[in-house]
Amino acid sequence: MKLAQRMLARTMPMSRSRFVLLYALICLIWGSTWTVIRIGEDAALDPFLGASIRFIIASIILWALVLARRVPMPRGKVEWRAAIINGLLGAAGSYTIVYWTSQFVPSGLEAVIFGTMPLWTIVISQLILRSERPSMQKVLGVILGFAGLLLIFLPGLTIGNNARIGAMLLMLGSPFVSAVSLVITKRDAKGIEPLALNAISISIAMAVLTILSLLTNDLSKVHLTSTHLWTIGYLATFGTVVTFVVYYHLLRTNAAIVMSYVSLITPVIAVFTGWLLLNEHLSLYAIAGALAVIIGIRLTLIDRSPIDRSQSVAALDLD
Questions:
Q1: Assessment of whether the complete model's pTM goes beyond 0.70
Q2: Residue 161 neighbours by CB distance under 10 Å
Q3: Burial class (CB in 10 A: 0-12, 13-18, 19+), 242
């Protein structure tokens, strides 16, 4: 929590080492959440119920920090609109889709589909943030990274019943709405403190998921086990509060496309955490795919144009 709080102040331009450290922190935590969510579901925790409790806890923590630190709220219609859109699309919309489709689509395949977010971000950035025009090298890097994801989960890419096919198609909406939210937040929310932005966004997601949970569950029959409690606690504090605050702090000084690459790295981490914690099989496909993702990310990050300097609060030196 202290790490998330330290990210709130506007500071001098960030060093390369600090950027890499924080970027890696986001990837590691979000990569582990796929496994933690699976552990909770394996313990018979309803997806919407678990998600709603997760966001209730995260909202309480975020608003407590906002009040304790007297963090200013968004100013003007543009900033409030950006915060609300981020809450409706990037938080509520994306997570509602992910948690619902998790009932029909394997978590690995969900990760593959969500890995298309950088591709959506490139297209949307072209339309909204014309200064974030990707080079051919960056495009090739994203394509190679996505190909690596497909390779990782190739053994599990089988088409089942109509419900699964429909869920897979719906799952495509999650990276799309996340990309739209990311680009709009980059454009219009530069002046909003990350903690305030996330308090508003997570609260919106909490409201939506709580309503869905009440509509789909009989709370009188709910019994939370110790496994439910620690998985929800981890997802709420680390998987939501810490990661989202740091993520949107980095977005203030980095191009939306660069931040979207997190969705390419996290599935790779999910494979290895699943292998370590759940004894899932680590195939040669997974190893080869992980290498492809790493090379793809390297291709995109060595491009000298990843930072949107014209719209940054402070420029990040990656030289």
A1: yes
A2: 9
A3: buried
